[in-house]
Amino acid sequence: MGHWLEWNNNTVSRKVLNFYNKRTAGESAVSLKEATGNRGYSKSEITKVDKWLHPYMGKVYTYGTEVLSMGLELMYRNPIYLAKNDPEMFDFIYSVVRQGN
Questions:
Q1: pLDDT digits over 8-40, tens only?
Q2: Angle 67-77/10-24 helices, nearest 10 degrees?
Q3: Integer distance in angstroms from the first to the last C-alpha of the chain?
Q4: CA 69 to chain CA centroid, nearest Å
Q5: Global pTM?
Q6: DSSP characters for the chain?
Q7: Within 10 A of 4 (CB to CB), how many other CB atoms are there?
């Protein structure tokens, strides 16, 4: 659902991209293999680690992000964990959901 919203709603897409760019400003991309220790990622899969709760949240794509998709998943599964460990991300996801666009 998060990817669909990001890809089909220009307002949401802009908000997510602005949030991603703000959080990762000045960061260099690294391989997801390196960031996670997971050999399953290909060499071409890269991320900007930031302070995301998982390096995959910062995955670099030509279009779109993992921010909303993974943020919504965390908000659903464990909102208290998200709020305590990344309050900025919690507030952002909450604002997107609350506004509805």
A1: 999 999 999 999 999 999 999 999 999 999 999
A2: 90
A3: 13
A4: 7
A5: 0.90
A6: -HHHHHHH-HHHHHHHHHHHHHHHTTPPPEEHHHHH--TTS-TT-EE--TT-SSGGGGB--SS--SHHHHHHHHHHH-HHHHHHH-HHHHHHHHHHHHH--
A7: 11
